[in-house]
Amino acid sequence: MDVNTKISKAIKLLQRFRDRPVTILFSGGKDSLAALLLALDAGLKRFNIVYAEVTGNTHPACTLYVYNVCKKLGVLDRLVVGSAKAKGRWDFYTCLVKWGIPWYRTRWCLNNFKVPIWQKHGYRIHVCGIRASESHEKSKLNMVRFTLQNAYMVNPLYTWTDADVLDYIKSRGVEINPLYDIYLDSGNCMFCPFKPLPAVARVMQDQDWGPKIARALMTWLETVKDYRGAEIGKRVATKWLRFYKQNNILTYL
Ligand code: SF4
47, 121, 171, 242: most buried by Cβ count inside 10 Å? Predict the structure, then answer.
């Protein structure tokens, strides 16, 4: 299916919700940007745009980009920016030291930092930028599904490729988040256990984020007790720290 057919299908899907209150979940990444642009092309009327900062783990330039792009698109008045703290006071890295590395069934990051913002500010229909080709887990979802948060998740980009997304954004004359050039992703979560290796290398080479993440991972590794999933967490932490150490060695050569 070519990209124009995919765009028409996505717009038709979203038009089914044209007169209902809809929330577009925007992370500052290219996929959710494409979902936002599709929602505008579909002529959605009653919508808001919800952006969740993951306190302590979101790059401030990601939040700035979200403001700027919403302003450029003329939808700044629809934007709601929220940031949560776990248990009312813990930021992401405090949680990481206490709770370990998040994994598929233990994604405390999502449940403490993003879901509460979506629940507080979101309507019951959520438009997301999820694509099946992103991961095995995501390939098990669907274009429309009911979620554990009692909402409908609409994924208009579900069958799209990375190239489709970039082509569509380009055709709309919008710039993607400049942090992609530096960190290979949006910076909404600087540490994420699911990041691919090239992105891990970029983050751990950063003079601010590298030491911050390394400190939290080392503290967790020194204090971790055995629990189900600890081994996976240790492997992830070791992988990230390997890139940090490599970087430190290079600075002495
Ligand atoms: S992007 Fe990664 S770290 Fe951020 S909330 Fe999702 S799973 Fe957690």
Answer: 47
The first and second tokens of residue 25, run together, are: 């979940």
* Domain boundaries, position 120: 3-178
Quick check: is 201 in a domain? no
Q: Which residues in 182-218 are b (16+ Cβ under 10 Å) and which e?
A: ebbbbbbbbbbbebeeebbbbbbbbeebbebbbebbe
Domain-located, residue 23 = yes
Residue 252 has a pLDDT of 52
The atom number, within ligand 1, closest to the CA of 191 reads 3
Give, using CA atoms, the residue closest to atom 6 of ligand 1.
110
CATH number at residue 59: 3.40.50.620
pTM listed for this prediction: 0.93
Residue 126 lies in a domain: yes
Place of tokens 């930021």: 91
For ligand 1, pick from 26, 32, 54, 106 the residue to mutate: most ligand atoms within 8 Å of CB: 54
Q: What are the tens digits of pLDDT across the range 34-52?
A: 999 999 999 999 999 999 9
